[in-house]
Amino acid sequence: MARIAVIGAGTASMAAAARLATGGHQVVLHERSDTYGGALGVCARDGFRFDTGPGLLLLPAVQRDLFVKTGRKSLEDVVGLEQVDPAARHIVAGGTEVTLPNASRSGVVEALDAAFGTGSGERWSQVMVRAREVWEVTRRPLLEDVLHDPAAQARDPYPATRRGLFRRATPPTLAGVAAAELGGGGLGALLESWALAYGLDPRTAPAAAAVLPYLEQTFGVWYVRGGMRAYAEALYERCRERRVEFRFDSAVTGLLREGGRAAGVVLAGGSSVPADVVVAGAPLPALYADGVLPPEQAGAGRDAAPYRGPLGEPGRCTVHLALRGARPAGTVHRTVVHAADRAAEAEWVFGPRRGRPLPPAGALTVTVLRPDDPATRPDDAHEAVTLVATVPCHDPGDPGAPDDGVRGLDWDAPGAAAAFAERMVEAAEAAVPGLREREMWREVRTPADTARDTGAPGGSVPAPALAGAGGALLRPGNVPAVPGLYLVGGWAHPGGGLPHAGMSGAIVADLIAGGPGGSR
Questions:
Q1: What backbone torsions phi and psi does residue 459 show, to the nearest 5 degrees?
Q2: Nearest by Cα to 124 from 108, 136, 137
Q3: Closest by alpha carbon to 313, among 387, 395, 208?
Q4: Facing residues of 99 across strands?
Q5: Element (DSSP H or E) covering residue 61
Q6: Low-confidence residues of the chain, pLDDT below 70?
Q7: Contact in structure between 501 and 239 (CB atoms under 8 Å)
Q8: What phi and psi, each to the nearest 5 degrees, are found at residue 490?
Q9: Angstrom distance (rounded) from CA 487 to CA 90
């Protein structure tokens, strides 16, 4: 039985801890804050309850596998899990609306034909066929296994079309697929919106990013009753059942090393905790920047992709709205209100930031979440609504410095959060008629809040690992150069998102147990 110290108590850390404790190891989690769950936070006020992180679940097979292998009760025994149908309503530029069913290829084809004209559904379907090929060749190396060959995953596996599109030296981008294969317009906006939702620039994201809508439309979209925080609570209880020890307000400031191996952790105040194995689950950019992990092991190791440090990846701004009045019958759970000017939006989110605190008019995509869940509201005479937008990360910088390509903005600047929230509410009125008249109060959370709560530099939210783009979207491998040290979480392989972070826990637990890495 090994003594295992885990840095951080996010869902990936807890997933690894539950698996390791089930295997008989003594596991202690050290969390810098006073609670668990990482990005799966909660905002509760006046009987309303909002998720501060992801509001929906994809690929629940990852979570099902975790609960099956760590206890008697299944995932569905401990949380209320239900499919979201329809999966989403989209309102694109010009007011065209399309509602997509959940996990129904024929239903999606029919809906797209009705919204964008005959043949639109078939064009979309052909892109999804090629995305399926991407999934088939990247599923194991970029989700289920350790990262054996980063160089191989640097190449985009998105296949060329019969017409010879993209048979050229320059690799295709997702925006290129949207224009060439879907004809741009509203149909192209749909494809690009998945990249934006994950914090990826459609103009530079590889064509392989088409796998993102493929996963959603193939395996479905799911909601946890009570919100995603309920899943974090269930995972915490599972860890407790397996006798995992949680130490909150226990900030790790360094790594103990003996004979070149990881031998425990150093805590704030100077005390140390010996361990046979250390699992780092906190945001890697912060661990390296703060000197918790040794810089010489970044980008090295048995299965490592190059570590590039903080890249100013986008974050999320959320507006939690407490509304008077009942949720209307037939309301769609998720509505995406697309930007009228996608190019201007991309430049605002991903381009240089100096001197541009707000996006241009019409350059904002907002996702509106309206769950039909009594746990989110005080009674049926009220409704809880959350608005989400992908935004530049938090970076106060130097106001007097020239434009140096910095990708963040100062979300703590006076009035910045409130002004942007107004833009989001204005956009969301297309999805929620009478929104302003129904509003009782709002809570606004920016990347600056995310940074404070989770420790992620700039409040950035990591995207899942994707093939192509020269390997720029790969994450550091789970086995770095220091023996006895392992990496889990959204900042390590296989990247961000709940299923990917959960798989990182499975991979590392299997490696520590002496396996090849992964969930078998």
A1: 70, 20
A2: 108
A3: 395
A4: 89
A5: helix 61-68
A6: 161-171, 296-311, 353-356, 398-407, 519-520
A7: no
A8: -65, -20
A9: 37
Q: Which two tokens stand for residue 193?
A: 């919106």
As a whole number of angstroms, the distance between CA 474 and CA 241 comes to: 34
Which two tokens mark 120?
């639109």
| Per-residue CA distances from 184 to 117, 189, 394, 447 (Å) | 13, 7, 31, 31
Reported in sequence order, the residue ranges of 306-407 that DSSP labels E, i.e. its strands, are 315-324, 334-337, 366-369, 382-391
Q: State the Cα–Cα distance between residues 145 and 147, nearest whole angstrom.
A: 6
Q: Return phi, psi of residue 324, to 5°.
A: -85, 150
Strand order in the sheet with 252-258: 252-258, 261-267, 272-274
Angle at 278 between CA 272 and CA 284, to 5 degrees: 100
Q: Rounded distance, CA 270 to CA 85, Å?
A: 52
Instruction: Map residue 245 onto helix, strand or coil.
Output: strand
Name the strand (E) or helix (H) holding 12. helix 11-22
Q: What is the pLDDT of residue 164?
A: 47
Query: Which tens digit of pLDDT belongs to each residue from 307-336?
Result: 444 457 999 999 999 999 999 999 999 999
Q: Is 216 exposed, middle or buried (0-12, 13-18, 19+ CB in 10 A)?
A: buried
Q: Residue 176 — φ and ψ, nearest 5°?
A: -65, -40
The Cα-based distances of 188 to 123, 176, 179, 362, 511 in angstroms read 11, 9, 6, 17, 41
Among 26, 366, 302, CA closest to 147 = 302
List b or e across 17-43, with b for residues whose CB sees 16 or more CB atoms inside 10 angstroms: bbbbbbbebbbbbbbbbeebbbbbbbb
- The pLDDT, as a whole number, for residue 161 is 64
Question: How many residues in the chain?
Answer: 520
Distances (CA, A) of 375 to 197, 226, 435: 26, 5, 21
How much is the pLDDT for 306? 45
d(CA 368, CA 464): 22
The verdict on pTM exceeding 0.85 is yes
Could you please report the per-residue DSSP string of 460-484? --PPBP-S-GGGTT----SS-SSTT
Work out the widest C-alpha separation in the chain, in whole angstroms: 68
Are the beta carbons of 221 and 108 closer than 8 angstroms?
no
Q: Tokens at residue 397, please?
A: 């910088």
Q: Spell out the residues 6+ positions from residue 168 whose beta carbon is closer than 8 angstroms to its own.
A: none
Residue closest to 134 by CA, chosen among 184, 96, 168, 174: 174
Tell me what pLDDT residue 301 has: 52
Q: Are 50 and 39 in contact (CB under 8 A)?
A: no
Closest CA to 159 of 206, 124, 195: 206
Identity of the amino acid at 443: E
